[in-house]
Design goal:
By secondary structure, the chain is an alpha+beta fold. It contains 4 helices and 12 strands; from the N terminus they run H-E-H-E-E-E-E-H-H-E-E-E-E-E-E-E. The protein has helices at 2-13, 49-63, 124-133, 142-147; strands spanning 18-19, 67-78, 81-92, 97-111, 114-116, 154-166, 177-178, 181-183, 188-194, 205-207, 233-237, 242-246.
């Protein structure tokens, strides 16, 4: 329960990774929520972090006085194949505007001027391009328009929250932009290092399960990391600093 409450609060208060595009929302929209709706109830769905994140976004939209959820996770089919999915179509009751929202929580590590996910097949520039040029275009497809012919004026909104990490032992120059969009410097707050650099970390680290990647540790059953697995791990230090520890052959090893 506390994990859900903390994650909901984090979603409401954490700024976006990116700035200076009218389609990018700087924050989760400020909403007044119906206290009778069980937004803080336990979650027993798909354990992947992205699924939990989208579920908590849905709960806040559904509990809000400002929004009505028209459809969530709409799979679009065209010529007998799936062409994509839409996270949310919302009715903004205050403005009477229909809104298309795509939401994502992402964690990227800076290496050689690229921001890689811990699974390096994922990269910030690739993700941004797909979200802006493919996902947000789903409401303009024939497949969507066939399902909702009466909806023709839809605003586009991308919320991409998360955290960006740099290697303090390599002291890289942090890019200001990605795909021409400004990177929010408030979100460059994490550190990462190779396993061979782990001994340079000067305070204990505690491994985080995925539900706590965003919010960080609670103080229960914390055991310092002393042995490193073959794969990456995400940790938090005694003072609250977030760290990824990756294999020495990363990112090539996870591409």
């Amino acid at each position: 329960m506390n994990t859900i409450k903390e994650f909901l609060s984090w979603i409401r208060t954490s700024p976006s990774l990116m700035m200076n595009d009218h389609r990018i929302s700087p924050y989760f929209p400020s909403v007044d929520m119906d206290s009778n709706v069980a937004v803080h109830s336990d979650y027993d769905g798909n354990p992947r972090l992205g699924f939990l994140y989208q579920e908590l976004c849905r709960r806040q939209f559904e509990a809000s006085h400002e929004y009505q959820v028209i459809v969530e996770e709409l799979q679009l089919q065209q010529n007998n194949r799936t062409i994509g999915a839409i996270d949310f179509i919302l009715d903004n009751l205050a403005t009477e505007q229909i809104e298309h929202w795509e939401v994502a929580i992402k964690f990227y590590l800076l290496k050689d001027d690229y921001w890689y996910g811990p699974n390096a097949k994922d990269r910030l520039d690739k993700k941004l391009h797909r979200m802006l040029e493919h996902q947000l275009m789903m409401t303009r497809t024939e497949a969507f328009q066939a399902l909702y012919p009466n909806i023709d004026d839809i605003s586009q909104h991308l919320l991409m929250q998360g955290r960006l990490y740099v290697n303090p032992f390599e002291k890289p120059e942090v890019p200001e932009y990605c795909l021409g969009l400004k990177i929010n410097p408030q979100r460059v707050t994490g550190f990462w290092c190779y396993q061979s650099q782990f001994e340079k970390v000067t305070e204990p680290l505690y491994q985080l399960p995925k539900p706590l990647w965003a919010t960080g540790c609670n103080n229960e059953n914390k055991v310092p990391v002393t042995e490193l697995p073959k794969h990456f791990i995400h940790c938090q230090s005694e003072t609250g600093q977030f760290w990824f520890i990756v294999p020495d052959d990363w990112p090539q090893s996870s591409m």
